[in-house]
Description:
Blueprint: H1 2-6, H2 9-15, H3 17-26, H4 29-46, H5 49-52, H6 54-58, H7 65-75, H8 79-86, E1 87-89, E2 95-97, H9 119-123, H10 131-134, H11 136-143, H12 147-159
Amino acid sequence: xxxxxxxxxxxxxxxxxxxxxxxxxxxxxxxxxxxxxxxxxxxxxxxxxxxxxxxxxxxxxxxxxxxxxxxxxxxxxxxxxxxxxxxxxxxxxxxxxxxxxxxxxxxxxxxxxxxxxxxxxxxxxxxxxxxxxxxxxxxxxxxxxxxxxxxxxxxxxxxx
Length: 160
């Protein structure tokens, strides 16, 4: 059954966007938050991010000041050079990668700055924290390209 859940997940996620939106708007937040750690673990027992890397291939995390300081130091670059080389300001005023896929993503889907990666990358896909329920628009977007978010939402909806 589990393997079937993840088969054609992109298509099923696209078909379920309205269901997810409705469910997220009326879900019992406390109940959901209690279930997330277990569902997060379950999802990542079945999903290997290195087989996917959709997040790194198509989207950018926000690079906050501590991220920029940490990564530029790690790369041996001045912060201004790191920003000029790799980042742009988006419409929200956040620093994001200049191009996709992420310049730190290798052809093997490994991140060359994994130990120093931005906090957004460390936290993604937020399937073990309240962002999943408190920021439904982000959750809906993430469910369209991340199999772990899709998996967690499907399990939450089935189990109430």
